[in-house]
């Protein structure tokens, strides 16, 4: 049986997790199937790793506006973390996550343990992200996107949504998911949600010290500088963005690219049209990513990445 509490505002579920009233928490495949069969109309899924913030809430809200029912998945997918990455210290805040889901009108939360998603321990069969999965984030995080696509494929099969909502914040992930899911499910992109000073919201921002938090602003500031020079062409955009990054030695840049949004190849100087200006950097012990879509060859609205 899944945990559904209708009477008291907050009750303690079987695993000791308080489940807010009106929200169904499914921990197993059969519990999710039972909850899914109760949902009617157009069903949305929003996949997350938990430690939910306003960025996730915006995805839930968009899904709620456009669909009749919303399933949120909360699953810290070990397959997409490398051996030296932050799986062990990644924030786990299920109680608060369930409250946020309730507030945002989520109907069902699927929060499985790894053995529910991968009953044999090893997934056996995996999705390969191919060449696109080896670029940018994939170059720094080998195998990351194979892990992402494998879990997304599994969660799509389990949740059977009509639409799936993903953040533009993870632009390469979004591109790969669009490539994998060509038919059957509408993949909907939601623009990056930022703090008032421009920093893209991320569960990993919790790792930042006060100094790191200041230094982290270099990322949106560099994107902002790039956009300001959009009309002048590709090299002017790259130069302006890089100039901001190099002025902050505590921001250790992994990559800065101006790339075609479909191929992720660097755009040439003559290129006109939409391009992805993407950056990844280490600040303290935290690796941060950010991006913005720029229209090369014309003036752009610079408000998207906040104040310079
Ligand atoms: P995560 O929990 O980090 O795996 O993110 C789950 C989903 O939320 C992904 O589709 C992310 O792209 C999206 N997301 C995370 N942060 C933001 C943000 N600041 N703005 C918009 N979407 C976001």
Question: How would you describe what is shown here?
Answer:
The strands form three sheets. Strands 1-4-7-6-5-8-9 form a seven-stranded mixed sheet, with helices on both faces. Strands 10-11-12 form a three-stranded antiparallel sheet. Strands 2-3 form a two-stranded antiparallel ribbon. The model is unreliable at 5-14 (pLDDT under 50). It has ten helices and twelve strands. It has helices spanning 29-38, 54-66, 94-103, 114-117, 137-140, 144-159, 171-180, 210-216, 218-228, 234-246; strands at residues 3-4, 10-12, 18-20, 24-26, 43-48, 69-74, 108-110, 163-167, 186-190, 251-259, 273-283, 286-296. Strand 8 (163-167), helix 7 and strand 9 (186-190) form a beta-alpha-beta unit. It has 308 residues and is of the alpha/beta class. The protein is globular, with a radius of gyration of 20 Å. The termini are far apart. Adenosine monophosphate (AMP) binds at residues 48-49, 55-56, 58-59, 166-167, 169-170, 190, 192-193, 200-203.
In short:
This protein has 308 residues and is of the alpha/beta class.
Could you give the order of the helices and strands?
EEEEHEHEHEHHHEHEHHHEEE
> What value does the average pLDDT take?
94
Arrangement of strands in the largest sheet: 1-4-7-6-5-8-9
Helix content bin: 25-40%
């Amino acid at each position: 049986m899944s945990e559904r509490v209708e009477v008291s505002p907050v009750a303690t579920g079987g695993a000791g997790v308080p489940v807010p009233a009106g929200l169904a928490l499914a921990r197993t495949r059969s519990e999710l199937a039972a909850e899914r069969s109760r949902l009617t109309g157009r069903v949305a899924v929003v996949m997350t790793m938990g430690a939910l913030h306003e960025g996730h809430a915006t995805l839930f809200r968009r899904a709620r506006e456009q669909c009749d029912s919303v399933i949120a998945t909360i699953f810290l997918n070990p397959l997409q973390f490398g051996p030296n990455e932050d799986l062990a210290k990644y924030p786990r805040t299920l109680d608060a996550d369930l409250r946020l889901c309730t507030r945002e009108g989520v109907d069902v939360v699927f929060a499985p343990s790894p053995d529910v998603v991968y009953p044999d321990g090893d997934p056996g069969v995996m999705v390969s992200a191919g060449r696109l999965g080896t670029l940018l984030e994939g170059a720094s995080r080998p195998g990351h996107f194979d892990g992402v696509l494998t879990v997304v494929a599994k969660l799509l099969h389990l949740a059977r949504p009509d639409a799936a909502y993903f953040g533009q914040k993870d632009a390469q992930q979004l591109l790969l998911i669009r490539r994998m899911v060509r038919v059957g499910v509408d993949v909907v992109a939601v623009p990056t949600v930022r703090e008032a000073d421009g920093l893209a919201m991320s569960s990993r921002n919790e790792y930042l010290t006060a100094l790191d938090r200041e230094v982290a602003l270099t990322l949106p500031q560099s994107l902002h500088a790039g956009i300001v020079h959009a009309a002048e062409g590709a090299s002017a955009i790259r130069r302006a963005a890089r100039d901001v990054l190099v002025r902050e030695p505590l921001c250790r840049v992994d990559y800065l690219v101006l790339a075609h949004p479909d191929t992720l190849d660097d755009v040439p100087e003559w290129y006109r049209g939409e391009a992805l200006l993407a950056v990844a950097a280490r600040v303290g012990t935290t690796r941060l990513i950010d991006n913005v879509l720029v229209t090369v060859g014309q003036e752009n609205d610079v408000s998207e990445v906040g104040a310079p």
